Amino acid sequence: MAPLGKRSRGIKQPTAFNPDSSAAADAPQAKKSKKEGGEAQGEEEEEEADSPEEVWEDAKDLWERAMEAAGESDPSPAIPLLRGIVHEFDRILRNSTSEQPLDVQPSSSTDSTSSTGIAYSKEAFYFIYATSLSTLGLLLSQLPQLAHPSEPSPLDFQIAASGFFTQHAPSSPSSSWSTWKHPLAHGRTLVLSASEKLDEDPTDEGAEDHITTPTEYLKDAIKSFELALTNLPSSPSFSTSPAAPTANRDPITTFLHSTLPLQLRLRTLLSIATSIGVLVERIDEPTDRLAFATWADDLLARVGTEALEGKAEGGSEWEYEVAVGRGAVWLGVGGREAEIVEEDVDGDASKEDLALYLEKSLKFLSRARELKPLVKKAGEEEVEDELSPMLVEVALTFGLVLDGDEEEVVKRREELEELARREGWNGEDEEEEEEE
């Protein structure tokens, strides 16, 4: 594969991905010198090169550190580490003369008990490379002030990562982790690609090269997630408090997960569902929007079922999270449908469908409120939490949908308005507040 080197934005295909030298300059390198601190024995003597096995162990250690840092409240320290990984793996691919990036001697076990829990394999190499690219793109999207001017765009990072995932998907997995971690990580990369594409300014440089639509990205993401879900492991004992220090780590940021304790499994399922759910309302095609919402809703329902059947620690908390997630998904669909109904001059839009979506949302969000009632402290006039804005929106939108002067309809509108007021609505709509 030919390296990209320094280039314009817009990656056509996965290849050795080499950020420019200014970005790589501050990146720590995985490769270490064996003569660190020693004096040169002669001008012509070169440093002894690390063995492929040592390069691999160093790369894994750096990746684990980078991924751990990326999960902190301040993920900025992960950026130079990830740049270091990308730079090092690019160097390895440039110097490789075979299909195997590193000439590491086969291990007797594909799941090594080394510090990072995995033996070298081609699929493990590209998994680290692709997840590093994807995570770096995500962090640079969140912290654009830390991006170097000539670095690729966050979407380009995701496209490159997805290309590696696609080209190096394990056709006959040599280890159990790759049957679920690979498609799980690929699915997340595709969701990030969809999100970046939705945010992309069509006038930006290189935007014309990004021809895949957000809908196409999400359809591929769901296919990848479904493959991961088929093989997602769980602990036979459904342990909720494992002693391992990485017990709460995102499973695609470490190799130290051969099974998933119930709590971590549920969090993984929840993150997959919500990653799709938050993008639903931004999808233009109604059929696709409904399909994505239904898929996310079904997976959230599965989280609730598994939490109940497995007697997960904090059972009511899981019920709350599921109710909020399902309510938010259908509010996203309903909110977008409400805009369509409002703008419909021909009267073709279906208020019946809109009412159905809002009814679903209200049911789930109301259940979440039952589980976590508003607590008003003495002297406080307004009380809100994460649920309040959603309940206000669904109540007011639903009230506008209900037509007619029948006593039952009028009573329902009054109940919805009262609900909105209890959740902090002051009787003014957003447009009036903005004008003031």
Give the biggest sheet: none
* Rough outline: elongated
The arrangement of helices and strands along the chain is HHHHHHHHHHHHHH
Secondary structure category: mainly alpha
Strand content: under 5%
Query: Fraction of residues in helices?
Result: 55-70%
Oligomeric state: single chain
* Number of E-type strands: 0
Q: Uncertain regions: pLDDT < 50 for 5+ in a row?
A: 1-15, 31-45, 108-115, 236-247
Estimated radius of gyration: 25 Å
| Number of distinct helices | 14
Summed over residues and divided by their number, the pLDDT gives a mean of 83
State the domain count: 2
How far apart are the termini?
59 Å
Looking at this protein, list some descriptive labels.
mainly alpha, 2 domains, 14 helices, elongated, disordered N terminus
Topology readout:
Layout: H1 21-24, H2 52-70, H3 78-95, H4 122-142, H5 154-167, H6 181-199, H7 214-231, H8 262-277, H9 286-309, H10 315-343, H11 351-371, H12 387-401, H13 407-422, H14 430-435
Helix pairs in contact: 2-3, 2-4, 3-4, 4-5, 4-6, 5-6, 6-7, 8-9, 8-10, 9-10, 10-11, 10-12, 11-12, 12-13
Describe this structure in words.
The chain is an all-alpha fold and 436 residues long. It has 2 domains: 220 residues, no CATH class; 156 residues. Helix 10 runs antiparallel to helix 11. 55% of the residues lie in helices and 0% in strands. It has 14 helices and no strands.
